[in-house]
Specification:
Order of helices and strands: EHEHEEHHHE
CATH class: Alpha Beta
CATH architecture: 3-Layer(aba) Sandwich
Helix content: 25-40%
CATH topology: Rossmann fold
Distance between the termini: 27 Å
Bound molecules: nicotinamide-adenine-dinucleotide
Structural class: alpha/beta
Number of strands: 5
Shape: globular
Radius of gyration: 15 Å
CATH superfamily: NAD(P)-binding Rossmann-like Domain
Number of helices: 5
Number of domains: 1
Length: 137
């Protein structure tokens, strides 16, 4: 993906789930990250794992209330994976067009794309990452 190397990005809620996956993906693309979370420990754990993998990140506590342009559908984070009832899981899988549920990494890929130069002409859009559960003409 073009244009993410050395770009600075601030990720709110980067201590777990979709935010953590997004932080890891942007770091893989060469971005420098500030990872914030209500839990400083969670933010620091993610930043440390990124640095151990050769990326550049710092983790700290912050409280951000914000709106993004990626709209995740039901996303199988580690926490949800641990708790999801098997019957409900089968129902969710039946509702998507692929063979699996949306992963945090799928959402992270969309965020990385929108931040990259490849998406320079995509502005003010809301991109659904929901496995095709909703289809718009
Ligand atoms: N997982 C899904 O299926 C799904 C679907 C649609 C939307 N979402 C939304 O996407 C976001 C992330 O979901 P997730 O499943 O990865 O959640 P998660 O609970 O795994 O992670 C959320 C992280 O954000 C942190 N946080 C909460 N409020 C904060 C604040 N004010 N400032 C800074 N950090 C804060 C939490 O401490 C936590 O580490 C949530 O807003 C959720 O509602 C999730």
């Amino acid at each position: 993906m073009r244009g993410l190397k050395d770009k600075a990005a601030v990720i709110a809620g980067g201590g777990s789930g979709i935010g953590a996956a997004t932080a890891r993906r942007l770091a893989e693309e060469g971005a420098q990250l500030v990872i914030g979370d209500l839990s400083a420990n969670a933010a620091r754990a993610v930043s440390r794992s990124i640095e151990a993998a050769g990326g550049r990140a710092i983790g700290l506590a912050f409280d951000v209330r914000d709106a993004g342009s990626v709209a995740p559908g039901f996303t199988l984070t580690e926490e949800i994976d641990r708790q999801l009832d098997p019957g409900l899981r089968a129902e969710f899988v039946a509702g998507v067009r692929g063979r699996r549920l949306v992963s945090p990494e799928d959402v992270a890929a969309a965020v990385a794309f929108l931040l990259s130069e490849d998406a320079a002409s995509i502005n003010g859009q809301v991109i659904s990452v929901d496995g095709g559960r909703t289809m718009r003409p």
